[in-house]
Automatic annotation (TrEMBL), chain A:
Keyword Metal-binding: yes
Domain Lactate utilization protein B C-terminal residue range list: 393-485
Domain (4Fe-4S ferredoxin-type): residue spans on this chain: 315-384
Protein name, as recorded: Lactate utilization protein
TrEMBL record, chain B:
Superkingdom of the source species: Bacteria
Protein's UniProt name: LUD domain-containing protein
InterPro entries reported for this sequence: FTHF_cligase-like_sf, LUD_dom, NagB/RpiA_transferase-like
Pfam families: LUD_dom
Native source organism of the sequence: Streptomyces humicola
Domain LUD: 105-216
Phylogenetic lineage: Bacteria, Bacillati, Actinomycetota, Actinomycetes, Kitasatosporales
PANTHER family cross-referenced by the UniProt entry: LACTATE UTILIZATION PROTEIN C
Amino acid sequence: MSGTYRGAPAFPKAAEASTRDRQLRGNLRHATHTIRAKRARAVAELGDWAQLRAAGAAIKDHTLRHLDHYLEQLEAAVTAAGGQVHWAVDADEANRIVAELVKATGETEVVKVKSMATQEIGLNEALAEQGIRAYETDLAELIVQLGDDRPSHILVPAIHRNRSEIRDIFRSTMGKWGRPAPDDLTDSPAELAEAARLHLREKFLGAKVAVSGANFMVAETGTLVVVESEGNGRMCLTLPETLISVVGIEKVVPTWQDLEVFLQLLPRSSTAERMNPYTSTWTGTTDGDGPQTFHLILLDNGRTDTLADTVGRQALRCIRCSACLNVCPVYERAGGHAYGSPYPGPIGAILTPQLRGTASEVDASLPYASTLCGACYEVCPVAIDIPEVLVHLRERVAEGGPATRHGTKVTIKPARGHAAERAAMRAARWAFEHPRALRAGERLASGTRSVHPARLRLPGPARAWSDTRDLPSAPPEPFRDWWQRTRGARGGDGGRATQ
Amino acid sequence: MSSAGSRDIVLGRIRRALADVPRTERPQDVPVERTYLRTHGERSERQTADLLAENLADYRAVVHRCPSGELPVRVASLLAARGSATVVVAPGVPQEWLSEAAGVARIPDSAGQTAHELDSVDSVVTGCAVAIAETGTIVLDASPDQGRRRITLVPDHHICVVRLADQVVDSVPQALERLDPARPLTWISGPSATSDIELDRVEGVHGPRTLEVVLVEG
């Protein structure tokens, strides 16, 4: 189950199973509803939230327009401050660089700060193949790792587990990874946190190498920022001798001042706090304080392909707060695993098919994993119009068209599964281009309305769709006939008459 | 360790991806509008201090206030109440802060000290670089009165002294103006916590589980 997402089933198939899991749905409903109300309160405290949100979007868009410039500036600043910068085109290259850097230290174990980028590239599995053991230190990542499970939420990867499941995982598997859980462990969250503290402490105090991601990188100063709660981030960023940070190229912001926007937007959107318990910033290395060797790996892995799409590139503004997951009716019912990627929920539905392309069954299904209700756009702290990108990607899946893959322009073929949809659209287009036929059809529908069934069962693959929908009721008189009868005498330009 | 080729490939892909951006456009040609507020409300010095205390306490930091003359007695009483036998002290912490804590062994912050040794120390006493009232945050910048980052991380009890006269700002934007990005910074808002179990906040994971902030007046 853990690690790779290769061969994941399409979203509807995965969701068909997960929506029947009552335990999962109960856990998700409880957790997402808890955070929703809290987030709304935290956001309401700031009267200028709309202005902060607009500035956050503007800073990200500004950076993306000149991403090459800012990455070169960042590289120079990090290098000047004592860090070493590496570039990785894809996941394999990033994993190879990390493995080589760890081997060069002579160590076979690393401690990890929670990082979406390293989840995305499957770093832990790649390191394991090289004989290097990676210990996840974020509480939720620890729960996922001990349970041989996959993350299902950006902020709280073990959101699908409730407290008693977590206790069972700790009791049965902690001993295999290090200090076992106490025999009398209960399911109180405080006791579970204490068990994790004791289990991980021996790892932190002896760790020589740490791997992290970063929430932000400041181009002008070469500063990296990690925003966290538990202190596991501080442990990893402070105690080891070597620090390796794997960061997506879209995480760069131009100036130190820009942090004043994101350090207000992120904590309130993600954990619904005025400020998260700990934020660490570091610029290269500092003599005698913290890791004396620092490597930064700048990761592409599909980001430049996403950047090439002028509609889809707004997904690169994402600061991984997960507010969109917490308000999404589809995510709440289907759960994170159904998205077949470390990025679940609405943002995952637009990010994954852009980072990985739409060739696989699951990736082609993700733009459809939404009701287009727009709640995700409302809460997004950097105003990503997720419904707009979803519709754009649906069009790419159904109609095909130009896209960029691995830096090369390609033409996507229309997906096979959408033949009925395309046929319906062609029929609609023909009807609208032939007014006489449209009028005849409308009159036929109105004339026969007394014998219309409540539901019209369609044959073949359309049956599941038609079985769950009422047939729209036809009006007694088509609108165009009514218009002609009541306003037509005024010369056919009735719109002006009503102004 | 990555080939120079990868750097060129990524930068080349970015430039091709941005074909819609005019070639002559420079980064400074695309200004960002900053219409958001520098602070959220007008406050007197006293009101700012009260808000800081309120927000620190809201996230379970233990807040104390005292005149500067009483600080040594206050620090001594906090260490005694905790039952601390040992305290690690940053090199630049004023001698008088601990002048009344006679029974507590002072451990200097030294480069040779291992994390395991630090783990056996009961408490740590530091100053701070700046405190933010609107968020209830104290920021450490590893100055001599705060020491290396590890000393405020490994011990389970942190006493942080904040001078109300000149170390408190209202907002996050004001704090960033004062801070030096070249220094390693640690922003602390309450003791270590997690929301990882059912998205409900629980205090006390890896960082100090007890954070006491002494706000010094005058």
